[in-house]
């Protein structure tokens, strides 16, 4: 079977209302190799690249309260730099390339629900249509 747990998705499929960086890009700690005195950054098991994380706001008005902010992990050789903020806006709009989603069962608090882990190969400024909003995509199955 060709499904290995994660699914390739387009940014617009996951974030149809756009996405906004709301925190700093941080190194992900490898808890198995780190010690209290010596932190070690996690590396991607497939590519060997360093793993970084960034918090992202999903402005979808229908998103559940607990799903408004998600973490996207990015595998890259150097710390990714978020796009610049649009003047007058508190957040930085972003699009992710090479986005994958991995569903998993979250049994937090005794109530099980399906949750999602997001990974990407890069982040960049959204394609603009002059209005400050991401350009709508044709349903071609390819990232912009």
Describe the structure.
The chain is mainly beta and 144 residues long. It has a single domain, classed as OB fold (Dihydrolipoamide Acetyltransferase, E2P), CATH 2.40.50. The chain has one helix and ten strands. The strands form two sheets. Strands 1, 2, 3, 4, 5, 6, 8 and 9 form an eight-stranded mixed sheet that branches. The protein starts with 6 loop residues before the first strand and ends in a 20-residue tail after the last strand. Residues 129-144 have low confidence and may be disordered. It comes from Pseudonocardia hydrocarbonoxydans. Residues 122-144 are annotated as: Disordered. This is Plasmid replication, integration and excision activator.
Summarize the structure.
By secondary structure, the protein is mostly beta strands. The protein has 1 helix and 10 strands; from the N terminus they run βαβββββββββ.
Features:
single chain, 144 residues, mainly beta, OB fold (Dihydrolipoamide Acetyltransferase, E2P), 8-stranded mixed β-sheet, two-stranded antiparallel sheet, 1 helix, 10 strands, 3% helix, 31% strand, globular, disordered C terminus
Could you outline the blueprint of secondary structure elements for this entry?
Layout: E1 7-8, H1 11-14, E2 20-21, E3 26-27, E4 50-57, E5 69-76, E6 92-93, E7 95-97, E8 100-106, E9 113-120, E10 122-124
Parallel strand pairs: 5-9
Antiparallel strand pairs: 1-8, 2-4, 2-6, 3-4, 4-5, 7-10, 8-9
């Amino acid at each position: 079977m060709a499904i290995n747990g994660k699914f390739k998705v387009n940014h617009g499929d996951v974030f149809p209302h756009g996405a906004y960086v709301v925190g700093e890009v941080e190194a992900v700690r490898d808890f198995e190799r780190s010690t209290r005195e010596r932190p070690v950054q996690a590396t991607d098991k497939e590519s060997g690249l360093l793993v970084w994380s960034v918090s992202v706001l999903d402005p979808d008005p229908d998103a559940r309260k607990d799903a408004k902010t998600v973490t996207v992990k990015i595998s890259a050789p150097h710390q990714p730099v978020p796009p610049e903020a649009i003047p007058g806006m508190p957040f930085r709009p972003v699009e992710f390339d090479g986005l994958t989603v991995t569903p998993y069962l979250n049994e937090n608090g005794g109530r099980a629900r399906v949750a999602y882990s997001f990974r990407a190969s890069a982040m960049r400024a959204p394609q603009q249509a002059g209005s400050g909003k991401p350009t709508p995509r044709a349903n071609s199955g390819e990232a912009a």
